[in-house]
């Protein structure tokens, strides 16, 4: 089925153009659904007999692959140069047998069991990102990514009754929403908000708060006294067992603990559930692109040494296995990270190189820990989701797949900035040791038992990436903008040239914009 | 793998007893996790040479199957009598080819495509229910059930700006939480809550509200003015596209609309994400029980005509294909719905029959509509989840599986009580017509297009069920309690004898309690 479907869709993509599929999707309009800036894939017909152009693409990450895929639909000649031995760039799924040497010269070999893996880079896809459209078009099967779980934990260091112990998301929410509702209902009822609310506003608001916070009515002083939403110490069940709950934490402790600081993460445009992941690993996407493009068009192990605009096109110098080569083409799309592109000798004007240097790389780190037993399901009844803490590990992810299996791979930390640098400075063994010590604070001794393998990534020292993603001091002061138009015959693309930085959506929409601009230039040329 | 694993686990179950597996799971304790009342499966060793007892079980629904499965572990002889031709009772997955005649004499034949199905009864499992333990033990593969989706809709009839049109959950939440935060921050800052809050409480609370509601700081009057959490009309993407958002709805409209009334559903103990479903249909559970028990122990098409306590055991009269039969056994477990059990001629004392009659059946209805195109994904970018409305359809469920496939089956309504009765009174064609008319209000004309099949269930007129579940006027006034102890050699079991009514968890925990009591009696007899 998958095979047939993939081929069918690729056929539609190649012949009708992704635009045909995409315009169907864009014909939404019913209500409140974001439209991604209109994109019509280039078509061969547009060329109207013009000669076939050759585009060299620097980098076979998501932006490079998307660019190549879309250009091929219109019959462009495409050559991708990729320094790594695989497609995807930061979209990297680590499986058993993988070996990686970082910029500090440290080599790690992954010893994950068959079927186990970690997505070292991007790992989740919101429903509205074009990433899912490419999954559909390329036949990449998807499954839910569990970004939110009421039974995962919040862990806050501190001195309150809620501090230094794991609190279930559901418990924290029940108490915070309970007290917020009690306080706002009281203030409303006492007339404190009469200058903002009509009588019917007040009625409707209090009605909402009663349900939202599970609080008493007016006669009961709108009091929050807990509810089953917090969870049970003994679950409701047979006969007379109606369940045993504990009293809520004290209001002062709840707010002092900071336990509510993570709630809004789940409301985010690109983090609210539902989220998805490819079945089998995020790199199913780059490998599907590779198949659709044709692997022979990608030169792996090709490090770019120079990039020049020439009078008739571009000239790229690169090396594979020590041998320098020169490639001439009509156009280049540079999809390398800007901090790397800036270092490549070129005849690009200084303002362009300065714009590339304007990007500020951010670090992020992840560790995958394979366990021989899924204790988070069996002992803690946590089926996927994220435990958020103020420890330097940041977020712990339980696997979104393989439920009830024998093994599972937990992301022991996914952190950024200072915390990522702290772990990045350690040896791989040191990272695991520290992650286990921190995870044990949350999960108990089980966190250190039955560990079968681990692998960690520190994106700041990852060869050919040198960072997890970039931030711009500004995206509106004119510097960033220099990279949005071509410089001679050189175009740029990448998530860094979008407002969806660090997302594949950013790389894909940037690639689409670049391909559109390039194609427009070609079809409007004399 | 599944095969091996299932057999391994069944072996553990049969030899070590589910208790071995279960006690591992119960050894949790870390924090805040509900423990289900301790259960140790009966073991053969307990019998200590006593003669093997024969238990006849009325009904091969979830309670009956669980009872049989657990008793078999200790070597009891077990016979199940089931009026239907299949196991599971209300756990019923309808696939193409299924045919069902209801109590009104109306026959429906399901014409779903291969691979398409609807779970007519239970359809979701919370992480903490023992249902998942049985899935693990029996080797039933599970996958996420999508009970919450920020991109599904809320639809409220009325006269506000938000009425009579679909509003995304995320939009409603952003506005409600925004205004709640603004109002509470103002009241707090103005001192209206000073009798309840210390200075540091106030600081911490306002800090929380700023993040929770995405509101301005004090200098900005704590104003809520919308945010990307509401969603975008143009999504952030390439180049300078930072996304376009709309202004929030007016405060009065937001609260008057009642758009927040459904939020608390998602905080419920047994409805908060994550939730799960068996891969391929909920009936994978009863069929796995059937395999584990041995199909030869279940007599299908067996309608019970009479039940008698005798001096030495029980005597059950039943009919298969018109021929009356008598079965004698040491004990009976009656797991039939109480409203049906009450009608069976028996020598049960009047207070027991009265207790059975004390149960009040509730109706519920569902329609499955198979579409030839997954327009909810392609056009609306809704990948699973629930649209909640004030229309008589109640809730609409988008499928939790088969993403990006060619077809999909939407639950067009899942409603209860009056609304269920309203649809139940219609012909199957009439139900579809009405459901489509209502669904079109929310989703537009697409809702009526490319319909390939549909099937509806009205539990009140479902043979052998006569209701979706029951409620008790009271579970503490002594009447309900009469059914928790055996009457002579007759025991009762079922979700109705639990505080998890309408959940398989209720049926399973009730069965466990009943089996435990029966076994205790046997092993403590002289």
TrEMBL record, chains A, B:
Coiled coil: none annotated. GO terms for biological process: amino acid catabolic process. Gene3D superfamilies: 1.20.1440.240, 3.90.660.10, FAD/NAD(P)-binding domain. InterPro entries: Amino_oxidase, FAD/NAD-bd_sf, Flavin_monoamine_oxidase, TAT_signal, TAT_signal_bac_arc. Pfam families: Amino_oxidase (PF01593). It comes from the Bacteria. One of its GO terms (molecular function) is L-amino-acid oxidase activity. Residues 62-517 form the Amine oxidase domain. This is Flavin monoamine oxidase family protein.
């Amino acid at each position: 089925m998958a095979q047939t479907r993939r081929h069918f869709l690729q056929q539609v993509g190649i012949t009708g153009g992704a635009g045909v599929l995409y315009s169907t999707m864009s014909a939404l309009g019913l209500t409140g659904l974001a439209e991604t800036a209109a994109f019509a894939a280039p078509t061969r017909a547009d060329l109207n007999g013009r000669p076939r152009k050759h585009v060299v693409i620097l980098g076979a990450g998501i932006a490079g692959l998307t660019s190549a895929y879309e250009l091929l639909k219109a019959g462009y000649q495409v050559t991708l140069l990729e320094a790594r031995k695989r497609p995807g760039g930061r979209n990297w799924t680590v499986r058993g047998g993988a070996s990686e040497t970082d910029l500090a010269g440290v080599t790690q070999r992954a010893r994950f069991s068959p079927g186990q893996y970690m997505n070292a880079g991007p790992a989740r896809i919101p429903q509205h990102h074009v990433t899912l459209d490419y999954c559909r078009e390329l036949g990449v099967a998807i499954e839910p990514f569990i970004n939110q779980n009421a039974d995962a934990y919040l862990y806050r260091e501190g001195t309150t009754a809620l501090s230094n112990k794991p609190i279930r998301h559901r418990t924290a929410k029940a108490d915070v929403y309970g007290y917020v509702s009690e306080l706002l209902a009281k203030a409303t009822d006492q007339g404190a908000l009469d200058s903002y609310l009509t009588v019917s506003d007040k009625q409707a608001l209090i009605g909402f708060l009663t349900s939202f916070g599970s609080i008493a009515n007016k006669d009961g002083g709108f009091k929050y006294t807990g509810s089953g939403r917090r969870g049970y110490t003994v679950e409701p069940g047979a006969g007379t067992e109606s369940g045993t709950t504990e009293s809520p934490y004290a209001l002062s402790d709840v707010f002092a603990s900071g336990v509510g600081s993570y709630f809004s993460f789940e409301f985010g445009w690109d983090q609210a559930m539902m989220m998805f992941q490819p079945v089998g690993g995020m790199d199913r996407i780059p490998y599907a692109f590779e198949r659709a493009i044709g692997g022979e068009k990608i030169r792996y192990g090709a490090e770019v040494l120079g990039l020049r605009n020439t009078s008739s096109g571009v000239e790229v110098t690169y090396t594979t296995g020590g041998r320098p080569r020169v490639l001439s083409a009509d156009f280049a799309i540079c999809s390398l990270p800007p901090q790397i592109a800036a270092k490549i000798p070129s005849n690009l004007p200084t303002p362009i190189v300065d714009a590339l240097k304007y990007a500020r790389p951010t670090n992020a780190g992840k560790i995958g820990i394979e366990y021989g037993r899924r204790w988070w399901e069996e002992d803690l009844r946590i089926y996927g989701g994220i435990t958020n803490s103020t420890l330097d590990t940041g977020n712990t992810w339980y696997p979104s797949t393989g439920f009830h299996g024998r093994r599972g791979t937990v992301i022991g930390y996914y952190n950024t900035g200072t915390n990522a640098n702290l772990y990045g400075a350690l040896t791989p063994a040191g990272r695991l040791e520290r992650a286990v010590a921190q995870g044990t604070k949350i999960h108990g001794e089980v966190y250190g038992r039955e560990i079968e393998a681990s692998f960690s990534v520190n994106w700041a020292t990852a060869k050919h990436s040198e960072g997890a993603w970039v931030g711009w001091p500004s995206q509106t002061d004119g510097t960033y903008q220099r990279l949005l138009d071509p410089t001679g015959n050189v175009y740029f693309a990448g998530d860094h040239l979008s407002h969806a930085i660090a997302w594949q959506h950013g790389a894909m929409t940037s690639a689409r914009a670049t391909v559109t601009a390039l194609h427009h230039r070609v079809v409007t040329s004399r």
